[in-house]
Amino acid sequence: MTIRRFRAASHKDAMRKVRDALGEDAVIVSSRKTAQGAEVFAISEADLAQLQDADEVPSPASPDFSGIAQQLLSDMQDMRAMLHQQQGEKAPDDNRKRLYRQLRAGGYSDALSRQLVALLPSALNHSNKTYPEALKWLQQQIVARISHQSEMRVNDWELLQHQGVMAFVGPTGVGKTTTTAKLAANYVMQHGNDSLLLVTTDSYRIGAQQQLAIYAELLDVQMHALADGDTLDSLAEKMHGKRLVLVDTVGMSQRDQRLAQKIAALGSAEHRDSTRLVLLLNAAAQQETLDEVARIYQRIARESDLIIHDCILTKLDETARMGGVLDTVIRHKLTVQATASGQRVPEDIRVPDIEQLVADSLTAEVSSSQLAESEWEQASETLEPSQVFAHGHLIQSNMQALRQQIPHFDELVQALKLKQLPDHWANTAFPDELNMIRWAAPQPLQGWSHLTPHLGLNKRGLPLLPPVLHSAENPVLVDMALAPVQLFDYLPQPELLDIFSQHQTGWLATLNLNHKVQFQGQPFTVNGLVKKHGIPLSKHTILYRGERRRLELTIAAAETEPSQQLVQVIYGELHGGPSKNPVQRRYWLADGNCTAEQVVERTRAMLQLEEFARLTRLAWRSLGKYELDSRTQLGLAGALAAVALHVEYHAAAQFAGLRGELLSISGKRGRVQGDKLLPAILHVIHAYDSLVVAGREVEAQG
């Protein structure tokens, strides 16, 4: 591929050079203003056609340009549409322009609007009939970029399960005191009033402390005021024994010089690890103001060794355009924990419905958005429409995020280039930071001849690299010294489980519903035992294959044979679909010392890792043209599957944006699942290498 660079005193002269050198059908990759005038990168249509027809196996020497070729073809369509307009002809429908105007009318920033519409698949662009589909695609892209606490019922609300200090921060008038009261009331309804403490730091506003004191009296909850200049450590005695401490902070402008001092006062030596700052954002404020608030509050929190990851959107009933606050959430990688509208306590606060908020943000009247129209036209004059430019930026940012967030990802990239596993990947050793091991079944998936690799997990239950390969000829033996918790995709021999129980090693094993156990000397199937003697545990909401599901667990005591070791039978149901019936049912066996919290942690990990075997097989097929030896192909396939699951299930807000961008790259729609993320991750790896090679060619041409 030959991408050529043309320089001239003006954009018009540069385009004339392009036409003279490459013809009227040249495809513009990108253009920009320079100190000397203008610079245009272009490729001839013949080179592009050759690129499209090429059927080469991707390799370090011969990168996979197929994705870029499709983007270039889309750019060519856009260029021709622009030429039609310049010649006075009727231009084809341009859904990118319509979506851009819709986003700007809804309050989204120019930068995010332009990035999103540039990624619109070409099949959804040049037809008025496809606009509804394009709008739906856009909604999915925005939702996928927003990390949110999407609980299914108030009793599952993660915000109310926090143990430690939760301080609400934000500018004056954003609704901190009312929000504190609303959450306090909801907390008391769930957990009672003995374990809650209310704290106010607002000594500036007249009546501020009295307002919170009235709510505290109504709820019969203790309340204390933090004196100006004191830190939370001064309330250590009053905080002792409290499950949750809600702090209503003084409202201050993001430009107030005293803000750093007030944020620092929220740090507590004793409670630092459990202190959670929640930023309140006024949905009715301008996007530029919200952006400044989030940026400054996050910076000042970092300077005080605190972190702001969570936010609550307030005053939804007062805003006409939701795009500004959603744009800020995406830009600053915040997790939306709640939305508030109105003054009623406790009714006017709820778990967020992000899909509805996004849909509402795209219903603004577009005809009044003259600014969006002029911005779009101005952008068209200075920069040719180019998906390549947007994809290139996206690929670089995604590559950087994967390298920073996933340990040993660079080793996977290098292994793909060299077509061989790193030496330490091949020695059947589990990775560092090991907290749990998921032991794969000793038989392959149906229709496949390879054993799924074993997988190490960190404390979050997320997969680590590298996966551990094994085979019937070279098995990796189970060792309780490797990790404190062992998860089995099958039921091991009773003797091994007895050894684990005797040494208090935690474990969980998958069962079928007809497996036999003993209870008080009587034989039961696990299904029958749960029905007769099962005790329900609390309900929890988990992410499962791209959707929030309610996990309902039931537990029953049992004994193993022949040792009569105490064990626990666990039955799990996943709810949340349109039907009242559960969407999934599972049975497990766990050690007798497993607590209720550990049951939830282990069953969630098992459910979320169910995709690993299938994704490994999918990655194996994707690597089929690489001419790899069988062991290398399996190791790389397992590593790619582990990365996809890590990205899919990581709860940090940074990963919400990464998931959304990878969904854009995959060109697929709907829920963000591993089978969509995996090909996108593989594409990012190859496209990044392709961009590096293409960049070198451009420099050589210059």
UniProtKB/TrEMBL annotation:
An annotated Gene Ontology molecular function: signal recognition particle binding
Pfam families: SRP54
The keyword Cell membrane is assigned to this record: yes
Keyword annotations of the record: Bacterial flagellum biogenesis, Bacterial flagellum protein export, Cell membrane, Cell projection, Cilium, Flagellum, GTP-binding, Membrane, Nucleotide-binding, Protein transport, Transport
SMART domains documented for this protein: AAA, SRP54
GO BP terms, alphabetized: bacterial-type flagellum organization; protein transport; SRP-dependent cotranslational protein targeting to membrane
Domain SRP54-type proteins GTP-binding: from-to ranges: 163-363
Entries under InterPro entries matching the protein: AAA+_ATPase, FlhF, FlhF__GTPase_dom, P-loop_NTPase, SRP54_GTPase_dom
Main location, first listed in the record: membrane
Protein location: Cell membrane
Identification of the protein by name: Flagellar biosynthesis protein FlhF
